[in-house]
Request: fold
Amino acid sequence: MIISSMLFFANALFVSLALAQGENGAPSPSESKFEAKLNRIAITHGVLMSFAWVIVAPLGAILIRALSNRNTVRVHYMTQIFAYVLALTGMALGIYLAVKPDYIIDTYHPVIGLVVIGLATVQPVLGTVHHRIYKSRKQTTWWATAHVWLGRIIITLAIINGGLGLRLSDNTRKGEIAYGVVAGVVWLVWMGFAVWAEAKKVRTTGEMDERERMQEKDGEI
Reply:
């Protein structure tokens, strides 16, 4: 169910990117080979980054909440590493574009992108430290809180930056709207799972506390 839904969103995302590409995807007769090459690289950069941050990363965040088996953490880890590799590849293409003529590194889109990648590099460390402590103590840690909230900030910032990238590359209005709709719906679904998981956790904790109080009363009797 979750995978099929994300595949639907992935297809919708690619359609939105095709709309955003518009006439920019087909080189004009007067366009040089160098300009056509830069255009293809820009499109590839956009596809990789959009797929990483709008589809794969939210999917990994949803799966760790939705699944409940011994492979859950592994699935989450592998999914997010895949998203990170896609993003790194997209970043390399973005840097190539940024240092070329008529492309500048000091605009908001590449700067935010580098910040996102930098923060994403910290994420595996936070998650790994928490997991090791949790395995020994069987209780959550502030490492987990930092990992969860930093992840939410990273993905949200990356999704917003994707829209800024479409504007910077002067794409079509229809494409920008389509990207915004797909990314917005995915973000809402992801946040919905996050709220559901937190509510479930609070409810479970309350039930456990109530059970412990009842056991204490039975012991006193």
Remarks:
- Confidence is low (pLDDT under 50) at residues 212-221.
